[in-house]
Every structure is written in structure tokens, then in C-alpha cells.
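so my prof wants the structure for this chain in the C-alpha cells format not the other one, which i didnt know existed until like an hour ago. anyway here's the sequence
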Amino acid sequence: MDQPLLLVGGGKMGGAMLEGWLDQGLAAKNVYVVEPFAAAAEVFATRGVHTAENHAALPASLHPGVVIFAVKPQVMDDVVPPYASFAGPDTVFMSIAAGKTIGYFQERLGEDAVIVRAMPNTPAAVGRGITVACGNAGVNETQQTQCLDLLRAVGAAEWVDDEGLIDAVTALSGGGPAYVFLLAECMAKAGAASGLPVDLAQRLARATVAGAGELLRQSDEPAATLRENVTSPGGTTAEALRVLMGEEAWQPLMDRAIAAATARSRELAG
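here's what i got, hopefully its the right format
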């Protein structure tokens, strides 16, 4: 990057992204982190990045090319407004906070601010996240590519032109890790109910979900094909799937769950 990068918030997601950027060769001297907690700021400083307690403590000469807001949605009202001083065509603001729309940031940063809204998920902490981003009309092609490259430091990244899709993204991939963890939880409980020791059932469920996820990641086959490959006609897996794929089982339940989460995301953003 020719211009400095400014990360506002060094929590779990922001910290994971910073580690990814540095590991992939972003020059630490070109990175500024606003982090009010001294202990966290000291950790970032050991990586060679510049740290500041707040916006006021940043160098007056700083003109970042990218400003990333990685703070909790509930503190955005207090955090965002001072950064309007950086608004202009050469600076893109990117938020990774759920429920905060492009319009929200334009109200606080100015109508001329270049804004990208991104929705990551928690596997970003281990470099296996998936993020979907969209931007306002001010985002140029170079800035779009730059933001996607930054997001790919912690996993895959996709771009959509319709901001309305972000609510469904939030419901599917944003909350998706919780659904997978629930699957592992339910599998372990079912295994224990069938007679397995609780700790063994938990280890089996965890390893199975993790292993199947890695197989899915590495395979070019659709999930349906991988499922079919495991299922012998008339066998034990087929019998379990007969229950799980029933009329009122997993698919209709997941349809309702994603629809409910999508609706809630729209309510929070409204």
C-alpha cells in the first residue's frame, strides 16, 4: 500500500486481521492502530506498528488510504465521527461491524465519504473466515480490490453490489459458525444418549465436524455429492438421513432459521 492503513479497534477480529496483514508482508511502519487499552496496544507495538489511544492522538500529518472500523456496533456512535476528517476520494472507510449500514456511516462521515461495508465471521480468527463486502458509489475499482485483498488475509472474500444482500449474508455466514457448533453439540448429546461416554462423544463430534469441514473446503465437489459419497444405500447413514431430511427436519428448520436471522438483521439495521 502506498498510503498508510489505519485500524480502529484491536479486538479479536481487528487483531486477527492485523496479524494476517503483517504475516502476508504489509509493512508494519505503514500501519496505525487506534486501541485505547494499553495492554493490547503494547502487543501491537511489538509488531512494529504505530499505536494511538484515540483519534486525537494520531499524527496531524496522517492521511490513510484505508480506515477500518473494527469496534463493536454499540460504540460506533462515539467512535466514528472524528474520522470524518479523513473523508475524501483517496480514503476508503471499511466497517466490519454487523448492522451498521453504508447510510449510517455517510451520516457520520459525510456524503462524500468512500465507504465499504463488510460482514466477516469468527473463523477469521484462524484464517478460515468468509467475508462479503459492498460499497457506495464512491468506491473505485482499485479501492474495491484493496479492501478485498485486506479481507482475504483472514480467509475468503466476496463482493456484492446490492447492500440488501448483507442481511442474508449475516444470517448465513455471519451466524453460521454458531449453527455448526450447535450441530457438534447435538451430535455429542445424541451419542451420549446412545451409550457413549460423554467425553468420548464430545471428542468424536468435534473431530467429525472439523474433519468434514476441512474435506468440504478442500474438495471441488458440491456438498450434496460429498453427502452421497458417505451414504451407502440401505445402510446406517441412509437411515439417519431419512430422519434428518424429513419434511419437518433440517431443511425446513434451516430455511426458517435463516429467514428469522435475516429479518432480525434488517430490523437492527433499520
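also thought this was worth mentioning. The CA atoms of residues 192 and 198 lie 5 Å apart.
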